Amino acid sequence: MTRRLLLGCSAVGNALVERAREERGDRDDLVAITDDTGWVSTLRDRNVATVEADPSDPATYPDSAAVVLVASDDPERNVAAARAARDRYPDAMIVAHLGTAPTEEQRAAVEAVADRVVDPVEAVVDRVSEAIGLADGRGASPGAALSRANADDGEKPARLLATLRGLSGPLLVVAHDNPDPDAIASALGLARIAESIGVDADACYGGDISHQENRALVNLLDIGLRSFDGVDLDEYGGVALVDHSRAGINDSLPEGHPVDVVVDHHPPRGPVAGSFVDIRPDVGATSTLIAEYLSRYGIAPDRELATSLLYGIRIDTKDFTRATATDDFEAAAALLAHADESTLERVESPSVSPETLRVLAAAIENRDVRGSVAASCVGEITDRDALAQAADRLLDLEDVTVTFVYGYTDGVIYGSARARGAEVDVGELLRDALDPAGSAGGHASMAGAQVPLGILSAVDESESLPEVVEEFVAGRFFEALDDAPAQPTGLPPEFPTD
């Protein structure tokens, strides 16, 4: 199977081929088509499979191609080759070199069919590699990046664009309910990617943006997120989920609603449906994945998007101290050049709501500490995000490495767990304890749970509802903790082990 196809050749195309051959030798699966005899001879001398033919004639093309680089110096030939490649490979990622001195008409014609257009003035080999989706944004050489395109990850950018192009109408990007910064930024980023190829997209959320820092982020950056309450699903040709992976589970979609795209970093708790699914639990934030796609498509994020993505990464990794991978550091470094640091400082120092202070005080007062584990029932709540903040703060207690804070509202018990330097995977711990009664899971160092109150709400006069909830939840939590196996590594759970 041909994965990369070079149509026409020039200094740009030749440099890419030369570096690829240095890295991979005869193992490379690049095919070149050019009618320039000089380039034919040069490419064949490097053992590149080269067809001497018109690069705009689809009759000479191989049966398949995942990535197509149009690289002639002749603008008119590049227009013809780009059009022919799009007709022959509708799902491929096409990057077109404009050639020497293109007219505005030629530029517009190429832009209409290519995923990325490389201006000859700005065309450098590393940038072309990144635009094709072969570079990984980590400063690797084009040859090294080109050699990785055989891997599934190298094909994901092309498959995502193919999925978006195949939609019958606009895309609805759905963040999980009561979204955190990672979900907010990821939804905006995926909508930006769709719009870059002419697909209209709306980012939306259910529930409330209640955490004071999240509200500050949305207000200061004037972020345009739609409330799901005003969404008519019939108006959209496709649905994407970000920062979660199942429709109707922690979002406002009907359960089991068809999904086209899923991008998430949480370990799935069951089969994930979607035409395109990218779930990477080893990465600390979904914003990292979205930033990677933006880089691979050559899309420079504007100030608002870059700031949101950077903040999403920082929050989900707790400033790179929790569940952090190399990808998170590199994505953040790339975003920093585009982000507004002064806005981030204002977002990180918002006023604290009275409810957050009340929940934190209740978590401290009601804590049940057993060894290095602290659990606390805070009773009825009005702000679910306050639970996560309280769980984070309880980790500051001396000798405490695992925390679990829970409360209830609107007929549902919500809980948030955190771990630092512990030998317990809190995602698995909550699954074992509460998933049979509701929904629970997450990462080794950060997890959450939702359990319907159900019959617990029908308490007799001798007991209060907080006491009943605490007895039920704490009993299951500590029982699961006693049965939980230790992590198979001596490293803290936030350290990557692969």
Automatic annotation (TrEMBL):
Residues 372-471 form the DHHA1 domain. Signal peptide: none annotated. Pfam families: DHH, DHHA1, TrkA_N. Residues 172-313 form the DDH domain. GO terms for molecular function: nucleic acid binding. Residues 6-118 form the RCK N-terminal domain. GO terms for biological process: potassium ion transport. It comes from the Archaea. This is DHH family phosphoesterase. It comes from Halorubrum ezzemoulense (Halorubrum chaoviator).
